[in-house]
Amino acid sequence: MKHFLKPGLWGFGTVAxxxxxxxxxxxxxxxATSEGTSTTGEGTAPKKxxxxxxxxxxxxxxxxxxxxxxxxxxxRAEKEFGIKVxxxxxxxxxxxxxxxxxxxxxxxxxVIAVGFGMLTAAIQVAPQFPDTKFALIDAVAExxxxxxxxxxxxxxxFLVGYIxxxxxxxxxxxxxxxxxxxxxxxxxxxxxxxVKEAGTGxxxxxxxxxxxxxxxxxxxxAANVLYGQGADIIYHAxxxxxxxxxxxxxxxxxxxxxxxxxxxxIAPGRIVTSMVKRVDEAVYQTIKDVVEGKFSGGTKVYDLAxxxxxxTDFRNAKELVTDAIKADLDKVAERIKSGDIVxxxx
Amino acid sequence: MSExxxxxxxxxxxxxxxxxxxxxxxxxxxxxxxxxxLEGKLLVGACAxxxxxxxxxxxxxxxxxxxxxxxxxxxxxxxxxxRYRMDHIVAGMALNLIAIGATNYVSKLEQFSQTLSxxxxxxxxxxxxxxxxxxxxxxxxxxxxxxxxxxWAVGEDPVKARLVGLNPVAIRYLALLGTGLFCGxxxxxxxxxxxxxxxxxTAGRGFIxxxxxxxxxxxxxxxxxxxxxxxxxQSLQLVFQGVPIMGTVWPSEVWAAMPYxxxxxxxxxxxxxxxxxxxxxxx
Lengths: 346, 283
Fold this sequence. Notes:
The complex is a heterodimer.
Chain A: H1 2-5, H2 7-26, E1 51-55, H3 66-81, E2 84-88, H4 95-105, E3 110-114, H5 119-125, E4 133-137, E5 146-151, H6 153-167, E6 172-177, H7 182-197, E7 203-204, E8 208-209, H8 216-228, E9 233-237, H9 243-252, E10 255-260, E11 271-277, H10 279-291, E12 298-302, E13 309-310, H11 323-337
Parallel strand pairs in A: 1-2, 1-3, 3-4, 4-5, 5-12, 6-7, 6-8, 6-9, 9-10, 10-11
Antiparallel strand pairs in A: 11-13
Helix pairs in contact in A: 3-10, 4-5, 6-7, 6-11, 8-9
Chain B: H1 3-30, H2 38-56, H3 59-83, H4 88-107, H5 110-115, H6 124-144, H7 146-156, H8 158-163, H9 168-191, H10 205-215, H11 220-240, H12 252-271
Helix pairs in contact in B: 1-9, 1-10, 1-11, 2-3, 2-4, 2-9, 2-10, 3-4, 3-9, 6-7, 7-9, 10-11, 11-12
């Protein structure tokens, strides 16, 4: 009997199950391989295994940038300390609080929130779990069990700006940012100051913002506009959308500068260098501190002097970045480290 | 590239995904199936084009895969709403969730993530010709053809349409098949512009297309115009962003809102009062 089957309900049930099944199957992005790895301490009584929960932001793993860098830090710590890892991707801003809470509830010793978007969520959740340690990247949260990890992106951006100023042939360079705000302003301000420091009279064209971290097409269109206006090098700070800038560089035989991770190999020969932000190092060190019982809350700043930010080795742009330029760059870097040059943040 | 050439390429790359998703939505909504799953269908198409294109090294196989993937999702939509009489909004949401999860999962499988950098693309000229022909055909059918009247009839009142001998369920399956093809083509187009699949790279464009469709009152010509205007303004605002105008640099948020504002205003001029298909969302 047709009525007996109640097709409406069946359909709903099927889809709901499918959807939730997939959502559950797909969101924890760490494969279960880490399960069962034991502590590394040989001969000693087995210590309690440390569990680390990591919540990625909307950019997510596979951005070849910020989140991937954080994941590399996790992988390194996993190998060295035999920690257990629970990783979760976030789809929307609304997921942050849920994801952080669920990591803490699942008994993580340390929960790492990757990205300044999770600030509010971290402030909400951390006080509810006073025995859990939290780490927040790119923003400062007050609760005492949170370690806030900051980077001096403007110092790294200054260096890539210097390189751009020295290597631009058209004497025009550009900048494509994601969502404008304090964070992305640091990248832009450092870049502009670096270009000026090069002393070649190179102009930075008006910056373009995609207002979005996902839309590769808009970033590519923005890059097309900047290249069209005569820029030959564009620095992007637009997360995953920034891949569109590389795409434009490839098509037009111009140059680009990568961000956060070492992106030099994404478009070989077209990427001069990348402003590397060692999120991996920060994540690794934070886990190390937890393993060694040295974790403390408060703010920790990774700058040029501590190796937290920097450039790549210019391996794909050797003909552009000569040894003389590299030597000058080292001098500039030394002056930043010594405090001789103070890089503006805005 | 000259400034005009830049403007033209940018407009095309930004507008075409909207046009395709919009026409996909037009077919489905005219037949009475409310379609909030355009986003998911685009996303699945883009992912399939990238993965299959990269694995086989043949962009056309990628395109076929995109068409198949989007169509499968679209037919699932028909199955849920027509056979199982599921609420159209709930079905659409479920399909979007499945699309997000599935593309995220597939594109991060070890064996794919390596090859995805070697993505191959269908030449845009080829795609553009296919798209122009397809849209011309659909427009002719909807505005002048018998098929368009059938579509309209089942969308307005499926019960009466059945009384005059039409089969509303079959027509809606066909319409959703068309939606799948359009969205698959949209996904292929997005991949023809990019170097690889990234999560959520459709960036809400399925929803923008749906909004445009509703605003123009489910009519094909204004829909085409709205999507092109949106793309053109978006590409134009990128030129003016950050440039001082009347002595001040306007916040980039103002520029980012420009495509939406201009499209809305332009439509307000000639859209008049619009009426949705009476049977939209009706079981």
